[in-house]
Fold:
Amino acid sequence: EIYQYVIHPTKGSEDKYSAMDLRTMQDWIVARQLYGIAGVAEVTGFGGITKQYEVAVNPDRLKAMGVSIPEVFSALEKNNENTGGAYIDKKPNAYFIRGIGVVKTFEDIENIVVKTQGNGTPILIRDVAKVQFGTPPRYGAMTYNGEKEVVGGIVMMLKGANSSQVVKQVKNRMETIQKTLPDDVIVEAFLDRTNLVNRAIGTVEKNLIEGALIVIFVLILFLGNFRAGLIVASAIPLSLLFAMGLMNLFGVSANLMSLGAIDFGLIVDGAVIIVEATLHHLGLRAVRKRQLAEGSGQEAVGSGQFAIGNEKDLPIDYSDTLTQAEMDGEVFTAASKIRSSAAFGEIIILIVYVPILALIGIEGKMFRPMAQTVGFSIFGALILSLTYIPMMCAMFLSKKVTHKENFSDRMMNFFHRIYQPLLVKAIKIKYALIGATIFLLLISLFIFSRLGGEFIPTLEEGDYAIEYVLPQGASLSQTIETILQAEKIIKQFPEVKMVVGKTGAADVATDPMPMQASDLMVILKDKKEWKTTNDFYELADMMKDKLQVIPGVIAEPSQPIQMRFNELMTGIRQDVAIKIFGENMDTLALYANKVKASINNLEAEDLREFRNGDYADIHHGCLAYSDAVVKVSKVVSAEISTMLAETDKPVLDGSDTEGSLKPYLQFYNSLETEEVMG
Structure:
């Protein structure tokens, strides 16, 4: 679910469009155009009233004319279809034959013949039923800001598609769709995955930039050489570029888990070793040359080779400036001595991430990109430290090998003066120190065993999804009324931009909720505009407390993606759930109550029980006849649907159940078995 939106009229036009009109716009204008976008798997409507052509049968007329429900079904089915035929080859053209039999108007349906009486008089649909616009049973609704019911849509993406690209195309198409709708009807998005993606990537970019600057500052500070610090720091963007190239090659997306796991300390480790070894080697050369100059007593010349032993007649070079060839040789010598040790350390780091690559399922989906990205970046840094870093040292490090004490040297000397006496004292009490260390380790293990755990730290998505549940068996109309009250309460918070309630299930029930359950999508303003509090989770608790004024309901704040993720993994939106399996629902309910009672003393914010809703069962026993159960079930379904079409209240609204059902149950009971069978 990458994009969710609502369709509603502007202020002042609420009475101009009915719920059926808005739903028709969703199904036949908005959804049809969104289906053409690459990467869109489904566009399902939510809320409103779906338009249908309905045949409302009259039980009295059916009985008077001797017509059964199966005969009406058969007549409608056989008189509403197109057929394809062969073709006529009439040179030079071919004419394809087809039969057009699909009904187009109310009159077409009304004139369908159900059966013919013995005297040859046909019985038409209009003789036993009324043809009208109707609606299927509603199992869900969508509300907006506590003001009204609206119609919405949910855009679902194909598995493996790029969510950012698909949402971008959906937004562009929405601009075109808006122009095709009436001026006083608007399409307003309330959940957009790209907002979260952009915030996450923005956070990663900010942290990467800040981390890189800190690393550069520390490198320059501790190396004591501005050029050396920049050479080491240049490995950071190049390693990231190398990693992103391999990510594109292997299909690893750039996300919070993959990019956020990059450690600049690991990336520059090999480069620091090479550069520091080079500076150390050049410093030793300067010391040796200074010692030779002091021992020989000769003056230095501008160039040439320095001589040792008895070769005093040759010119001796004590200058502190190296030629490019000498610099290349010194860098090569320094890098060759240290490279094997440094490469071994980087290989060890890469091996640490190998077990993560073996993860599968949800764990693999989440953590494999992290291991791959870190591995790519370290592998790139390894290659750079073998090739690029030595070359940059030879080219850009100063060829004057004289060294003067700088701030870095004074700082390190200061730390050495503190560290050296501490080290001497630690060696003297080594046994006591080891014992204290083991004791602290045991204490830390004990504390660790008492800590709570979670699969992954909670990501602050920026919006709330409040699970709102009424008592078991609540009707859709009651749930809508309560949800509108809850939305008005939440809208009182100045941090709230929009509240959209999704009650029950959509047409394509990707989230099959019962009618007493709702998801309140609370869209928040930017944190800069918050007034009540700046804490994301504290605001959620405040909303939960405010909703407690409505009796008999459970409100549990979560986040849109977090709630859906929990549900996809376990089928339960909460983090902890106990499932009881069995065949008898009454027995399961009994054990559910026992389990709930046994864990009531646990520290938990909410304990609830989920079970099936209430049913009105009609048992029939015409099993002596062929297809009896199927045909009788059609009668029951058709008659109850007719009653729903003729009355504004639901079948079981708790007010007049017996009176509402009585005439239809009398009709059902009065039918002889042969009449039902036709």
Notes: Residues 297-319, 645-678 have pLDDT under 50 and may be disordered. The two ends are 47 Å apart (CA to CA). The longest strand covers residues 148-157. The chain has 25 helices and 15 strands.
